[in-house]
Amino acid sequence: MRKKQDTPQPEEEPASDRDFFDWMRTLTAVLVAVVLVFTFFFMVISVSGSSMYPTLHDGDFMLVQRIGYTPQAGDIVVLRKESFYDEAIVKRCIAVAGQEVEIDYEENRVYIDGVALEEDYLNFTNEGLSDQYGDDYMVEKDTMVYSDFIVPEGCIFVMGDNRNGSSDSRTAALGMVDTRYVIGKVLAVFFPIDRAQLLS
Fold it and tell me: What does the DSSP 8-state code read for residue 66?
């Protein structure tokens, strides 16, 4: 009677190789997830200029929410209007559609629906202005075309925190911003580390 031969068994993959391939698959999945999140939901952008000083400084890196955001008064937003400036800019949303805005340029006060805004984040000095402007740079009041108005439907009104050094919705060049130009809301500054902060 013929003796039954044992069926050869496949060699088992070493545990170290399995661990390596599992680790690589996990790392690849994580990287793909991060790319997708930062492509569709968030973005990282740096501040260029001093129009949002002292809240934001030139060179700050910010985390911006892109998807599922509706502009609200008080938010710091990133927007891009190519007829105004080629690159994305950062401003504070002061008012949204339907709100009445009154700007008192003598008292440096902004009123929304008759109530004065408490703006403890403002800078009215030349401190922090970018070197490219020089020490005497100021946005001239005669360039301001908006002082008392109601924000139209589908638009927001934005201003820089560096109120005397910001070209913003007060000027005809930018004016009321169509919400379709809004890229997203600034959530936080994460670099430089000593300036890391959450922004409400």
Answer: -
Q: Residue 173: name the closest of 135, 145, 141, 199 by CA.
A: 145
Cβ contact 73:93 at 8 Å: yes
The CA distance from 22 to 200, in Å, is 40
Q: By C-alpha distance, which of 92, 68, 103 is closest to 161? A: 92
- Model's pTM, two decimal places? 0.74
Helix intervals (H) in 5-59: 15-40
Q: Which residues fall within 8 angstroms of residue 60, CB to CB, at 6 or more apart?
A: 46, 47, 189, 191, 192, 195
Average pLDDT, the chain: 81
What pLDDT was estimated at residue 33?
59
189, 49 in Cβ contact below 8 A?
no
Q: Is 149 helix (H, G, I), strand (E, B) or coil?
A: strand
- Cα of first residue to Cα of last residue in the chain, in angstroms, is 86
Q: Look at residue 64 in the predicted model and tell me its pLDDT.
A: 93
pLDDT, greater one: 37 or 25: 25
The pLDDT value given to residue 165: 86
CA distance 55 to 19: 47
